[in-house]
Amino acid sequence: MSLITLGITVSYAYSVYAVAARYVTGEHVMDFFFEFATLLLIMLLGHWIEMKALGEAVDAQKALAELLPKDAHVVLEDDSIETRPVSELQVGDVIRVQAGENVPADGIIIRGESRVNEALLTGESKPIEKNVKDQVIGGSTNGSGVLYVEVTETGDKSFISQVQTLISQAQSQPSRAENVAHKVASWLFYIAVVVALIALVAWMIIADLPTAVIFTVTTLVIACPHALGLAIPLVVSRSTSLGASRGLLVKNREALELTTKADVMVLDKTGTLTTGEFKVLDVTVLSDKYSEEEITGLLAGIEAGSSHPIAQSIVNHAEAKGIKSVSFDSIEIVSGAGIEGEANGHHYQLISQKAYGKALRMDIPKGATLSILVENNEAIGAVALGDELKETSRNLIEVLKKYGIEPLMATGDNEEAAQGVAEVLGIQYQANQSPEDKYKLVESMKNQNKTVIMVGDGVNDAPSLALADVGIAIGAGTQVALDSADIILIELANKTTRKMKQNLVWGAGYNFIAIPIAAGLLAPIGITLGPAFGAVLMSLSTVIVAINAMLLKLDPK
Fold first, then answer.
1. 8 Å CB contact between 303 and 350
2. Which end of the chain is more exposed for a tag (fewer CB within 10 A), N or C?
3. Active site residue 268
4. How confident is the model at residue 476 (pLDDT cuts 50, 70, 90)?
5. What is the pLDDT of residues 279-299, one digit of tens each?
6. Which residue among the candidates 93, 268, 413, 469 is catalytic per the annotation?
7. 198: closest CA among 543, 518, 527?
8. What DSSP assignment string belongs to 16-30?
């Protein structure tokens, strides 16, 4: 805006001088009041168009805020309903959500069942079946049933509020490309001032002062690097909004640029390439002291308090067979290995095949995940679980190969389970990987000067997500995983970077061509620009950059 200020100041000051000179000398001296007024009008029009484009680019936060209804139906102790503003809800309040209504706040269902649409919040396109004890997100849309929800989060701690914070942080955080744009813009300022001074002196010698002022003002106005200053922020704002509308949260804008330079992507298996919805394929008895029913009861008992997909599948398997779970006195997590607990005076562990560390004489179903039930360091049983491949996994691998990124699966599952998935997808793999192994794998690749993307969805992946150049949390994930992640999309990063480059080339290239013409370089062959036309071109360049940014789109699902 400094160049615009200089141009307007020179134009206005000279016009005041021209009017005063007329009264003093009685001779006609040309003024630029018309050009000055036109310049202001065109500048304001261009600025309005620019702000409109910028406003559309950052509509994601507003759209998220509008998902929350203004009022909530609070259930009182006598089961009567009181309507309160959402802002007055407190943790522990019970709210009723009718069919078709948006959920007012994050909470847990205590009564009712329905299908809830979370597409605008998480990117999950299909409505999700919700029952008692399931969590619901404020802003999601209830389907056909009536839900009674106990509020668990309000205000700044709610899901929508945290997403809005992420969007705001991402949009205010400068990227490398934006820093480059700012440097080029600063160079253009000095170039324009120097060229304008040269034009002023040269045209005073060649022609006269009014002519010199015209070329000087035109040079200052046309060189305004407004388009360059908006080239990157507009694209990033648009990109961030597109991502948010598809459940993709950009926390670190530099990650967008790093993603396009990635050499390898390390992928977790469970919940990332596969659905994470396990089913028990086989329960094997490895000790003469126990029957299959007793082993199943111990498996269900030790997993009873866990929400992990594997645990839930084992518990469900026992219930389906009518087997009662064994009651455990104490249960603790074994970091990176499994779980352990006490029951009936015996100490049991349910751990991975790698953590057990001994060979087992048993047939493992192809592609199955194996967990070993151990008593006094001896295996007494094993459970094999199957996990289905996600429909989108094949597309992901195709996209990675298209962009020249090598996919590598690193999983804590056994060799057979890992090999089964890897063969279907046609990728390399590392099996029996503990969290520390994954961390060392990422570290070794970075030591080879490779740009590494890590993809995961659980607490165990958080160290690797943080170490990688770009961490990607897939699905709902856990808060630890999300806090360690940078972005959640490859396609968005590549398209965003391409738009950034286009806008940078246009924003800088336009100025290097326009400045010499505005200074009168082509005047000898009859090509000149006036201040008003210079303002038109300058505003037009800004509009072109804005339109190009708004053309950034993601392919529909």
1. yes
2. C
3. yes
4. very low
5. 888 888 888 888 999 999 999
6. 268
7. 518
8. HHHHHHHHHH-S---
